[in-house]
Amino acid sequence: MLVRPRAPDLEGRRHWIERLSSSIIDELAGEYGTPLYVIHSQTLRERYHEFVTEFEKRYSNSLVFYAYKANYLPAVCEQLHRLGCGAEVASGMELELAMALNVNPQQIAFNGPLKTENDLFHALSSGVKYLNADSPEELRELDVICRRRRTKASVGIRVNTDVDLDLHGFRSKFGIDIARGHARECVKLASRLSRLKLVGLHTHIGTQIMSPNHYSKALSQIIQFLEENGQFAHSLEYVDVGGGFPSNSIAPLGLTEAVPPIGSFATKIAEEMKRLSEKCGHEIKLLLEPGRYLVTDSITLLLRVVRVKECKTETFVVLDGGTNLVPTVRNLGLHHDLVVPGTRRTERGLKTVVGPLCSEYDTFLRGEFPLVKEGDIVAVPCVGAYDIPLSPQFLFPRAGAVLLDDGKSKLVRNRETMSHVFSLDSIRAS
Ligand SMILES: Cc1ncc(COP(=O)(O)O)c(C=O)c1O
Questions:
Q1: Residue ranges of the chain with per-residue pLDDT less than 70
Q2: pTM to 2 decimals?
Q3: Is the peptide bond preceding residue 246 cis, with omega within 30 degrees of 0?
Q4: Helix runs in 177-211, H state only
């Protein structure tokens, strides 16, 4: 049964959608149709400024790169770039998007375990500044490409730190193992590759990390690694700690602890970076790649009630969009509120709120819910991170998106149509 208790941090908080008048919400839903993702520019700006300020005041030599994977709606990326944020890309496709959005290559970090030769060539020839190799093979490929291009490159390696996070029995496949000596071998290899200069270390420990101590542990391992590789410590220029900073608007079901504020992460990371810089004998640049933290709160999904029906002993509220539009509800077991905008109706009843998909799993909530009627809008706030890029198409074309900025709305993604969904198929009448 899907009863979604509010996580402790969410108690008493109001989402931005609850501060909009219901007539504005009705207008948006009427003009653009539902289901509809609404991006709130102001919230995006606030989260970015909060994040940057908390880190800059503790460690000024830091750069922020938005992790595109969290949501690569171009309109979202663009908003963040306009504020000065860089791009963290994890595939050739994301790199192409960053280039199409005119991101300065000096503000791009390129990671990921699958970078094709073409991707690496493209990144090097475009001047991408922070290129982190995931394996010794990738270092060799980079060296070969540099030889072909008759250039040299400064690069980083991603290391696999051991932080003992609960990955539900899975192990991290990313980067080069420190504990088994592979990272040390890689440093030696890089010193033999005449076209490459190793200047950076990258690590990313996971997502929705609930304790700043996990970052301290990862950085301590990096410091120890640098102590054992003194020559490399000398030439090191940057350490990239990846993303993983938790949003306090969503929470794993059953969470009982409060989500620590971003400042507490900045404090721990800054402490370790100062220690690290001291060991290296010069100040090391800190790179950060937040995804979830920056975008979660800024997007709300608007759905419309299409039916209220009784079946057996339950009252079902059927919405016009399914849980495929909010896949983190099911995939990651994250809590999402449901809001009925503008409702002053205090009367509530036991309801099962569902989408239109052909599956009993297509359930948003089972519990107390306002007494709604056909045509009412139901909003799912805080769907900015991972919901849109992970959303599978199923039965219905996917939702469009509008940007809401200073009271004005603008369509930034068209709703899919039948021809988008089948655009790659050959459909022939026999
Ligand atoms: C290398 C890297 N950087 C940044 C991120 C962003 O993580 P989050 O959205 O949790 O901040 C990820 C997520 O998987 C990642 O793999």
A1: 1-13, 166-170, 251-256, 330-335, 343-346, 430
A2: 0.94
A3: no
A4: 182-192
Q: What is the pLDDT of residue 4?
A: 45
Alpha carbon of 218 to ligand 1 centroid (Å)? 15
Cα of 303 from ligand 1 centre, angstroms:
29
Atom of ligand 1 nearest to the CA of 242: 3
Dig out the tokens for 397 from the structure: 């074309």
Please give the mean pLDDT across all residues of the chain: 91
What is the H or E stretch that residue 86 is in? strand 86-89
Q: Which residues line ligand 1 (CB under 6 A)?
A: 67, 69-70, 88, 111, 204, 207, 242-245, 289-293
Q: How far is the CA of 156 from the centre of ligand 1 (A)?
A: 17
The answer to whether the CB of 348 falls within 8 A of the CB of 368 is yes
Ligand 1 mean position to 69 CA, how many Å? 7
Q: Pairing mode, if any, of strands 363-370 and 348-354?
A: antiparallel
Ligand 1 atom closest to the Cα of residue 70 is: 9
Selection from 298, 241, 232 nearest residue 266 by Cα: 241
Domains of the chain and any CATH numbers: 8-40+296-421 (2.40.37.10), 41-294 (3.20.20.10)
* Structure confidence at residue 168 (pLDDT): 61
Identify the helix (H) or strand (E) that includes residue 136: helix 136-149
Structure tokens given for 353: 């709120």
- Cα of 229 from ligand 1 centre, angstroms: 27
Amino acid 341: pLDDT? 86
The Cβ of residue 259 has, within 10 Å, a number of other Cβ atoms equal to 21
Cα→Cα distances 303→54, 307, 315, Å:
35, 12, 18
Nearest-CA residue for atom 16 of ligand 1: 204
351 has which bridge partners? 367
For a substitution probing ligand 1, which of 51, 204, 296, 386 has the most ligand atoms within 8 Å of its CB? 204
Atom 4 of ligand 1: nearest residue by CA position: 243
Residues 298, 276: Cα–Cα separation, whole Å:
35
Q: What pLDDT is recorded for position 251? A: 65
